[in-house]
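Much of what follows relies on a compact textual record of a protein's fold. A record is reproduced here so that you can trace the correspondence yourselves:

. . .
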Amino acid sequence: MSRPTLSVIVAARNEAHQIADCVRSAAFADEVIVLDSSSTDATADVARAAGAKVHVTDWPGYGRQQQRGIALATGDWVLSLDADERITEELAAEIRAAIEQPVAEGYRLPRYSSFCGQFMNHGGWRPDYTLRLVRRDRAGFTEHFLHAHMTVEGRRADLRSPIIHYSYRDLDDVLEKLNRYSRGAAIDARDQGRRSSLSRALASGLWAFCRTYLLRQGFRDGRLGLVLAMYNAQTHYYKYLRLWMMEREA
C-alpha cells in the first residue's frame, strides 16, 4: 500500500515578510499550495522561492478561497495553514503518524498563540483547538464572512503538538484587527438575523473582559493579559455597536 500524501493550503495576501517561514515549516508535506490574493508585495515570488506552488487569484472570501485550495490539492489529506502559523518538527511527525494510521477523517490541532510578542497561556487562548487536517474527499469550509472554518464529513480526533501562531505582532496589528474583526463579526451576526442595542454592546464588552481576565484567568499572563482582556472587550463592544448601527441605517 502506498504512503498517504499530504497537501498544505495557505491563503495569503501581502505576507512577503513571513510567508517563507510558513512554507518552509510545511516542507515535510508532499506539496504546499499558496493562494495569493493579488498581493501588492512579493508574496508570490517569496513563496515560490521557498518551494510552494503559487496560484494568484482574486479574493472571494476566506472560506471560498480555502475551497479553491482543496480543489487544487492532489494529496489524500489537506492541512489548512495561515501565513502567520508554523508547523514544528514534533507536530509534523504527529501529522504523518496520524494520516498513516488514521483513527478519524479529521483532526483538530491546538494552537499556541502570541500577543504582541508574548505567548499566552490563559485568557481562553490555550488550548485553542481548531479543525485543520482532513481527508481531502471529506473536507469543506464554511462561508462565514469572519473566521470561516474547516468542516469534515466523519469522525474527529485531536492531536497534541501545537501549531505555533505568531498573531497580533504589535499594537498596530492589534488595532487593525480590532476594526476588521469587529466589522466581520457584525456582518455575520446580521446575516444570522441577530439584533443589537447600545446596552447590549456595553454589556457584551463588560462580559468579554470579565470572562477573559477573571474566569479564564488572563491575569496570570501579566500586563499583556490585561491588554488582551481589554482588546476582547473592545472587539465585542464594537461588534454589537456596529450591528446596532447597521440596524439604524437599514
Observations:
- The longest strand covers residues 106-115.
- The chain is about 40% helix and 25% strand.
- Residues 171-249 form one domain.
- The radius of gyration is 19 Å.
